[in-house]
Amino acid sequence: MENFAANALAALANPIQREALHKATTTFAERRLGVLLRAPNWQDWRTHARAIKDHTLEHLDYYLQQFANNAAARGCVVHWAATGDDANRIVTEITKAANTTAAVKSKSMTTEEIHLNEALAKAGVDAVETDLGEWIIQLAGEVPFHIVVPAIHKTRAQIGQLLHEKIGVAKDASAAELTAAARVVLREKFAAAGIGISGGNFLIAETGSLLILENEGNARLCTSLPRVHVAVVGIEKVIPRNADLDVFLKLLPRSGTGQDLTTYQSLLTGPKTAASHEGPAEIHIVLLDNGRTRMLREPKTRQALACIRCGACLNACPVYQQVGGHAYGSVYPGPIGAVITPQLVSLKRGKQLPFASTLCGACREVCPVKIDIPELLLHLRGEVLVGNQAAKAAAPDRLQALGFSIWAFFMRGKRRYAFATTLARCCDRMFSPLLRHLPPLSGWHKGRELPRLAKRSFRAQWRKQG
Amino acid sequence: MSDREKILAAVREALGTKEGAPVPQPPPPVTISLPLQSTELVAHFAQRVVAVGGRVQRLAAITDLLGAVLATLHAANAHSVVLSDAPIVQAMRQPLTENGITCLRSDAELNHLLAADAGITTAQYGIAETGTLILDAGRERSRLASLLPPLHLCLLPESQLLSTLGEALRALPHPLPYAITFVSGPSRTADIELQLVVGVHGPKDLCVLLIESQKQH
User: What distance in Å separates the CA atoms of residue A128 and residue A125, rounded to the nearest whole number?
Assistant: First the structure.
């Protein structure tokens, strides 16, 4: 995340990735618009959903307790993790107590955020991603490129080559053949797993339930076959009532993949209670803070906690559309990633990200919970600049100070100004190509055209006309 | 201080509130989508199931059920089925066996369940708005039978069709059972070049058998 600018340039020079990215972002954006045609109350839904989120976040302590008490009453073990390390330690201990080294995982950005797989690997646990895209990413040793479709930057041929090396499928296999091969390999993993690990899209306070949305069925397998199920969920995912799911289930799939509803929703309330039940005997829910309470402090930054991780802002963003997910160098890419990463990780490390935006407002337009992402980006830019000024007070930039005092000198009188513009015009005419390749203009010029100055100044033209 | 108290204290500190501060009612639930006419339910449900890649067959009477199930199994070349414990499904065990179909209970060994060609369950409700089946694990052993085999045959009486998702959420039992699954179409992925592939982890074929309500005379 410290190297966004350099990463972005590298991404721009990768035509295969750019084509895949263009196809993905435009397809999802078009599908979203298609389903919105059948959703005449869309704006009312957004307003209502945001009101529920705002209310819950304003009383988060109350709803977290209500959720934890109800989940515990239904037999779940509720854990509280202040940091990612705490959560990793808790999950590792659960796998040890379950006496297993074989874990299956369904797609979860929260476990990506805390790098759970690495922590489990260190403890000797083999955690296999089972969402097709996540599994491909795990085999390739990469991180997700998009929060909804993680392997979208890879072509079928690249995936064919990868699966040829790893599991021996034919290199030129079709998408259907590759998927079928994955099903066979992953079925064995499901059958052997002692523990299933998931995230969660919503926690319902009044019932102590966990809701998981998906299309593939791997989350259903992860939460019904292994004896133990662990869900790692951010504290901001709680909502008050079961009835509130209505509006969120209207908004999330439509915004994410342009579906009216994802194929499966699992509404899980406690482990099985009878011998005839099918499902885990133990359910653990790990409630994760990891920087979220910091974002809660100000109403402005608090709104980012309303995010339901649909990915619509990624698809709509002209910067993400060009550079893709890896350039951000963080688990959460795109506009919402540029907002939450500096706050979850650190402003110092993520300081380039709030600037990775044109502030065009497309993200705000598509956000199903009306998060004002441009406002947040500006706010964070302000924080970065305040930080920079504090640093400058300690070590002032002499060259910049000299530049501004020269500028101030020439701006202070009519003749001086006229002299300076004439000089600039001469320089522009004679040395322009050269100047563009020398600092400080060379840096500025990398991503932009430097406009030429007019042959005659406005004042000169005015005098002639007059 | 426990981890729970630490995090709750951090939340309260960030919000500037105290423990036990009064909490107003959350925004009242609103009607998110308008109900369909009761006469439209079946047609709308069937259209939505097909739109998400499933199949629907409408049966005039319960006596047509066995014939329809056998025809679907034969067409799919399915020789072994997992049966849920719903009475209407269990009632088919003997006739199916007599027709050469191997019937497994849903609590059979996992290897056998994994090798089965089809699963038969009922659904407790259907949602017309989205073509969704609601499987209540508290009422029926349907979790694995509806998930593991490549073909899922789901029986649904038309009288159990609801109009909207909101209505369905209100119809769920209190307290909630340990697991409820909402199913809209076959298992799908588009993770490779956005190409739609069905049957990635769950069934690739979802066949809903809608049983018409008995006409009142």
Answer: 9
B105 and chain A in contact, CB less than 8 A = no
Helices marked H in A257-302: 292-296, 299-302
How many Å apart are CA A31 and CA A33, to the nearest integer?
A: 5
The angle, 0 to 180 degrees and rounded to 10, between the axes of the packed helices A42-58 and A245-256 is 120
The answer to whether B50 faces chain A, any CB pair under 8 Å, is no
- For residue B123, what is the domain's CATH number? 3.40.50.10420
Q: Per the structure, how many domains does chain B have? A: 1
Strands A282-288 and A77-81: what pairing? parallel
- How many CB atoms sit inside 10 A of residue B195's CB? 14
Q: Which of residues 289-318 of A touch B (CB under 8 A)?
A: 289, 293-294, 296-297
- Does residue A440 have a cis peptide bond before it, meaning omega lies within 30 degrees of 0? yes
List pLDDT tens digits, range B66-125.
999 999 999 999 999 999 999 999 999 999 999 999 999 999 999 999 999 999 999 999
Q: Domains in chain A, ordered, with CATH? A: 39-290 (3.40.50.10420), 314-394 (no CATH), 399-465 (no CATH)
With CA atoms as reference, the chain A residue closest to B9 would be: A61
Alpha helices in A230-311 (DSSP H): 245-256, 292-296, 299-302
> Which residues of chain B fall short of a pLDDT of 50?
216-217
- CB contact (8 A) between residue A133 and residue B191: yes
Q: Is the ipTM of this complex over 0.90?
A: yes
- CB contacts of B165 in chain A (<8 Å) are 245-246, 249-250, 261
Alpha carbon distances (Å) from A266 to A66, A141, A221, A440: 21, 29, 11, 57
Whether residue B137 and residue A279 make contact (CB cut-off 8 A), yes or no, is yes
